[in-house]
Amino acid sequence: MNPKLEVKYLYLEKSRNKLLKDLQSLDDTLLNTPPAEGKWSIGQIVAHLLQVEQATISYIQRKIQQEEELHTASVRNKLYALLLKLALNSGMKFKAPAVVATVPDEVDLGKLHQQWDDTRYKLEDLLTELPPALLYKCVFRHPYAGMLSIGQTLTFLQDHFNHHLHQINHIRHHLEKSA
Description:
Layout: H1 3-23, H2 28-31, H3 42-65, H4 75-89, H5 109-129, E1 138-142, E2 146-149, H6 150-178
Antiparallel strand pairs: 1-2
Helix pairs in contact: 1-5, 1-6, 3-5, 3-6, 4-6
């Protein structure tokens, strides 16, 4: 794996492992209790994080198998990646794209953990097998920011994770205070 990608991957993995460890102490009721009508529970947010990674990996796999030539990330792509980072770190709320907006009513953390492990193995394999010639090519289309390179995509996954981690911590604090 490219060393720059490895650093990003390992940080993403460290973040995920810490979250899952922290959530083990929650009972299923708290995990699956929405903070308000029409809002996602902690479990649903975790399911969404998993869906985003699965959809991202699937897209990249399809994109790099196509015969068409991929373009190198331009200044415009870099600007949109930066705007995406700023938006996710701003605390603003966003409507999830339809492809990753349907989450189960209730989740089993153990099953999600296993699915996320499997997804991370796929991501690790993808990053390990990525040809060096594709390192700066646009391989993922974000619904709002457009095409991103693999490094920008990993940054997006981390920023997206952090965005939802803030929500998870807020919901958890609210629910534990109310209990």
